[in-house]
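Module 6 notes. Inverse folding takes a fixed backbone as the condition and produces residue identities as the prediction. Think of it as a translation problem where the source language is geometry and the target language is the twenty amino acids. Below is one complete input and output pair. Work through it position by position during the lab.
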């Protein structure tokens, strides 16, 4: 039995989320169908992070345990041949038998894009939230930095019966500019050991209140301390959010890099912990 890791990218606009659901199009469902078509195995594919309907990924990671004897190059090429055009495998790798895409991860990274131009750009309608106005970015940055460290993020999540703890560790945060289609966008970027349901979108929705002058930085801190969802801002729309990276201990996954694929062969001589970051 082998454990294969998959690095995934997808446009979430037409998916009802990442997790498998009966009779609904999901990322996991599309992956498992492609895997069966390639290997004739019915296997459960496990994702590192759950993304909601409309949320994208450029650095999602999944794993599957398999008896297939296909090479990594064949798995990579074959899966992409069977997958829809809005979902693609970016890399494949061999992992230890006990590797788990979710539980072996050390860090997840997300990016939320905001377009503040006077008029929306149609090409960005599924990738960025359009807000035609000015935002106080220094105040937003100061508020965002209050989230760094270990905190109870109950104010920024939807309570669920299965949620054991709402404490998470935010490793770093930043607000930077990113250019897409010659348009300068505001990117809110966060990295944590794990995220709660809707957590990034609720943080962004509350940060927008700060940016618009409807909430002070101190009030933002009070929302975090309160653990009260009712005090936070609205949940930002899903389409501006992308899972950009999942990090693992160095050398845990032996990723295949495109430069190492020559003449139809695959080399895995250089283990790497690199997943993805734009």
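Target side of the pair, the amino acids:
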């Amino acid at each position: 039995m082998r454990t294969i890791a998959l690095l995934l990218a997808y446009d979430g606009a037409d998916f009802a989320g990442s997790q498998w659901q009966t009779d609904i199009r999901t990322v996991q469902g599309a992956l498992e169908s492609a895997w069966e078509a390639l290997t004739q195995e019915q296997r459960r594919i496990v994702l590192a992070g759950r993304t909601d309907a409309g949320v994208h990924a450029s650095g999602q990671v999944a794993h599957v345990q398999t008896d297939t004897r296909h090479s990594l190059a064949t798995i990579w090429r074959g899966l992409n041949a069977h997958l829809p055009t809005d979902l693609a495998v970016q890399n494949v790798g061999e992992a230890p038998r006990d590797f788990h895409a979710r539980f072996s991860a050390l860090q997840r990274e997300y990016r939320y894009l905001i377009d503040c131009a006077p008029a929306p750009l149609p090409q960005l309608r599924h990738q960025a939230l359009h807000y035609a106005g000015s935002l106080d970015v220094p105040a937003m940055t100061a508020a965002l930095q209050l989230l760094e460290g270990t905190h109870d993020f109950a104010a920024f999540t939807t309570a669920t019966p299965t949620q054991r703890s709402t404490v998470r560790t935010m490793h770093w945060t930043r607000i930077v500019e990113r250019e897409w289609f010659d348009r300068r966008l505001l990117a809110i970027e966060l990295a944590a050991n794990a995220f709660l349901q809707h957590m990034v979108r609720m943080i962004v929705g509350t940060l927008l209140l700060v940016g618009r002058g409807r909430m002070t930085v101190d009030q933002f801190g009070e929302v975090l301390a309160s653990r009260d969802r009712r005090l936070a801002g609205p949940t930002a729309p899903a389409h501006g959010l992308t899972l950009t990276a999942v990090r693992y201990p160095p050398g845990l996954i032996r990723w295949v890099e495109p430069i190492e694929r020559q003449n139809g062969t695959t080399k895995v001589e250089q283990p790497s912990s690199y997943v993805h970051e734009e």
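Reference fact for the lab report: The helical segments are 27-39, 72-82, 137-145, 199-211, 217-226.
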